[in-house]
């Protein structure tokens, strides 16, 4: 693999609220592994299960590990992860180094890794956004071709912008009326469960088929979430003057949500500056995982001729729901 841009051995890992994914690269060959995210209620027990899973594909030798993580990490310690608050206060990097003993381990916020994919799909654009709409909502920002993380490293907390200031619903962040209370997958399910006991057993928006849109509560909840997301997105576009946006996340599999937020954002833009919007939706099954892979390979620093390797290597990770829109 003389022309392969990867190090000989790397692991790209995405830790999510429901799944943990890994792509191992060994001598230029990419292999995907997946497990359900442990949910024992105890960090050490969860990590034991993670260690046992990694042992199935761990290879001896020096390499690099890049981890995409959905919580806030400061000085290697998890300081905030609403999905699993019992992980907070532990040093994830320190514990991962005990597994990958001969590898360099790096941890990054998951949406920042999703933004890394923009080097691939918006390869000639200096400014772009990545927005994930799944269990929660987050954003990665590329400005002047560089990842923008803010003064404290917490830029892009899009899901915690307030869209309903008079709301009495409190978010896990402590504020009230946050976007992800209404537009994330978990938020919309919670709003449905407040309306009727019929939805208590529902755990994912994907459980609703197109036939479910005959259900008034389901349709109203999805429309509300999508319209609020479209309005918030329009605000973000106005703040950053960025019109190249990459979207990922399971909520986008819902056609009504997807079409409604796109229409809402486009209508607002048509009334204002009439900028041309370039949206790419779900190019990969997990953009944060692919971004971690690109980060490990130093993709942003590779010459163009070597970047072409990824066009073939990453084809098997393309999403069946991939869309490219110009509005």
From TrEMBL:
Q: Which UniProt keywords apply?
A: Kinase, Transferase
**Ranges in a coiled coil:** none
A molecular function annotated in GO for this UniProt entry is:
kinase activity
Question: Do you know which SUPFAM superfamilies this protein is assigned to?
Answer: Actin-like ATPase domain
Per the record's keyword annotation, is Kinase included, yes or no? yes
For this protein, the record's InterPro entries field holds: ATPase_NBD, ROK, ROK_cs
Presence of keyword Transferase: yes
Superkingdom in the source lineage: Bacteria
Concerning its family, UniProt says: Belongs to the ROK (NagC/XylR) family.
Q: What is this protein called?
A: Sugar kinase of the NBD/HSP70 family, may contain an N-terminal HTH domain
């Amino acid at each position: 693999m003389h022309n392969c841009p990867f190090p000989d051995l790397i692991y790209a890992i995405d830790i999510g609220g429901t799944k943990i994914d890994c792509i191992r690269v060994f001598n230029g060959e990419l292999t995907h592994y997946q497990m359900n995210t442990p949910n024992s209620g105890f960090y050490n027990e969860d990590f034991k299960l993670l260690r046992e899973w990694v042992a199935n594909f761990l290879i001896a030798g020096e390499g690099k590990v890049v981890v995409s993580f959905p919580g806030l990490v400061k000085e290697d310690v998890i300081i905030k992860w609403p999905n699993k608050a019992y992980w907070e206060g532990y040093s994830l990097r320190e514990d991962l180094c005990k597994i990958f003993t001969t590898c360099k381990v790096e941890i990054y916020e998951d949406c920042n890794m999703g933004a890394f994919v923009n080097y691939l799909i918006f390869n000639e654009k200096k400014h772009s956004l990545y927005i994930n709409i799944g269990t929660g909502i987050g954003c990665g920002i590329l400005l002047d071709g560089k990842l923008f993380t803010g003064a404290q490293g917490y830029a892009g907390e899009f899901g915690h912008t307030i869209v309903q200031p008079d709301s009495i619903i409190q978010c896990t962040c402590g504020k009230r009326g946050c976007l992800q209370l209404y537009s994330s997958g978990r938020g919309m399910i919670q709003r449905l469960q407040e309306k009727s006991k019929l939805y208590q057993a529902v755990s994912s928006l994907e459980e609703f088929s197109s036939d479910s849109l005959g259900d008034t509560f389901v349709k109203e909840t999805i429309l509300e979430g999508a319209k609020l997301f479209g309005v918030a997105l329009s605000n973000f576009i106005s703040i950053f003057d960025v019109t190249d946006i990459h979207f990922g996340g399971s909520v986008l599999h819902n056609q009504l949500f997807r079409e409604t937020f796109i229409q809402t954002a486009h209508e607002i833009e048509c009334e204002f500056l009439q900028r041309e919007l370039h949206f790419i939706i779900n190019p990969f099954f997990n953009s944060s995982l692919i971004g971690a892979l690109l980060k490990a390979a130093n993709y942003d620093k590779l010459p163009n001729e070597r970047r072409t390797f990824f066009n073939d290597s990453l084809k098997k990770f393309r999403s069946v729901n991939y869309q490219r829109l110009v509005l």
